[in-house]
Design brief:
By secondary structure, the chain is mainly alpha-helical. The chain contains 12 helices and 4 strands; from the N terminus they run H-H-H-H-H-E-E-E-H-H-H-H-E-H-H-H. The strands form 2 sheets. It has a two-stranded antiparallel ribbon with strand order 1-4. It has a two-stranded antiparallel ribbon with strand order 2-3. A hairpin with a 2-residue loop joins strand 2 and strand 3. Helix 2 packs across helix 9 and helix 6 packs antiparallel against helix 9. About 45% of the residues are buried.
Length: about 300
C-alpha cells in the first residue's frame, strides 16, 4: 500500500508538470485554433534559463533555498513569457489571415529553430542542476514519507493551475479571453482587442511552460535540448485527453497522464509506461472523442 501511495504522489507531481505545459497548448488552441508545436521548446528554454540564472546569480545563496527557488521560477517565467510574445509577433501574427497550413508549418519551423538554438548555445550534452538546491528531507504525511521536492512541485502546480482558472473565470481579462475563444469577430464588435488577448495568451502559456522546465530540472536533476519534444508530446496528449481547448480538461488530463505513467512503471514495466499511457488515451478517445471534459475537437489542418 505504501508503494501505491508513493507512486500516486510521484505521478501527481509529474502530472502537475504535464498539466502546466498542456495549459499552453490548450490556451493557444482555444483562441487561435492552432497547435503551437514550438511550445515544448519554450519549456526547454525555461529549463536552461533557470539553470543559467541559478548559477550566475547564486539565488539560493543570497535568498536561501526556498525564496531562491521562488525567485528563480518567477524570473524564468518572465523571460520565457517574453520569448513567447516574440514568437507570436514574428512567427504567427503575420500569418493570421493565411491558410491554416501556413501557420502549422511556421510553428514547426519555429520549433526546429528554437531547439537548434538551445543546442548551439548550451551544447548537445546533458546539463545538471545543483543537487543541493533544496534540502533533501522527507515529510511525514499520515505515515507516508514524501520527499520535500515532490510535495513542493505538486503544491506549486496546483496553486498555479487554480490561479489561472480563477483568472480566466473571474476577471474581465479572462472574460475577454473566453470571448475571443468563442468568436473573434463578435469579440471585436464588443470592443475587445483580440490582438492584445492573443498576445496575453502567448505570455501566460509560455510562462507556465517555463516554470515547468525549472521544475523538471529541480526534480530530475538534469536537462537536455531534446526534452521539449518528449514533454511537449506528453503535454499535448494530456491536453487532448482532457479536451483540447478546455482549461480544466488540460489540468485533469495532465494529472491523469502522470498517474497512469507512474502506475504503469511501478506495476507493469517502466519500459512500457509510455505505451500504456498512449493506449489508454486511444481508448478514451474512441469512447469520447472530445476528451474527458472537452466540448470541441481539433480541426484537420
Amino acid at each position: 500500500m505504501e508503494q501505491f501511495f508513493q507512486q500516486l504522489t510521484n505521478g501527481l507531481a509529474v502530472g502537475g508538470i504535464y498539466a502546466l505545459i498542456a495549459l499552453g497548448y490548450t490556451m493557444v488552441y482555444g483562441v487561435l485554433k492552432l497547435i503551437n508545436f514550438a511550445h515544448g521548446d519554450l519549456f526547454t528554454i525555461g529549463a536552461y534559463l533557470g539553470l543559467t540564472l541559478l548559477t550566475s546569480l547564486s539565488l539560493t545563496d543570497r535568498l536561501g533555498p526556498f525564496w531562491g527557488v521562488v525567485a528563480l521560477a518567477a524570473m524564468a517565467m518572465g523571460l520565457v513569457a517574453l520569448v513567447g510574445a516574440l514568437l507570436e509577433r514574428v512567427a504567427y501574427r503575420p500569418l493570421r489571415e493565411s491558410p491554416r497550413l501556413s501557420a502549422v508549418v511556421s510553428a514547426l519551423g519555429a520549433s526546429i529553430f528554437l531547439s537548434n538554438a538551445v543546442m548551439l548555445i548550451y551544447g548537445a550534452r546533458f546539463h545538471v542542476y545543483p543537487q543541493d538546491l533544496l534540502p533533501k528531507i522527507t515529510l511525514d504525511l499520515f505515515g507516508l514519507q514524501l520527499p520535500l521536492v515532490r510535495v513542493l512541485i505538486l503544491a506549486a502546480s496546483l496553486v498555479m493551475m487554480t490561479a489561472l482558472y480563477l483568472f480566466i473565470q473571474k476577471t474581465r481579462i479572462g472574460t475577454a479571453i473566453r470571448a475571443a475563444a468563442i468568436d473573434q469577430g463578435a469579440a471585436r464588435l464588443m470592443g475587445i482587442d483580440v490582438d492584445r488577448v492573443i498576445l496575453l495568451v502567448f505570455l501566460i502559456g509560455p510562462a507556465l511552460g517555463g516554470v515547468a522546465g525549472v521544475m523538471v530540472g529541480i526534480y530530475y536533476g538534469q536537462i537536455n535540448f531534446t526534452m521539449g519534444w518528449t514533454y511537449g508530446l506528453k503535454a499535448f496528449t494530456a491536453a487532448i485527453l482532457g479536451g483540447i481547448g478546455n482549461i480544466p480538461g488540460a489540468m485533469v488530463g495532465g494529472l491523469l497522464l502522470g498517474v497512469i505513467e507512474a502506475m504503469g512503471a511501478a506495476y507493469i514495466s517502466i519500459a512500457w509506461k509510455d505505451a500504456i499511457a498512449f493506449c489508454i488515451l486511444i481508448a478514451i478517445l474512441i469512447v469520447r472523442p472530445t476528451g474527458l471534459l472537452g466540448e470541441r475537437v481539433a480541426e484537420k489542418v
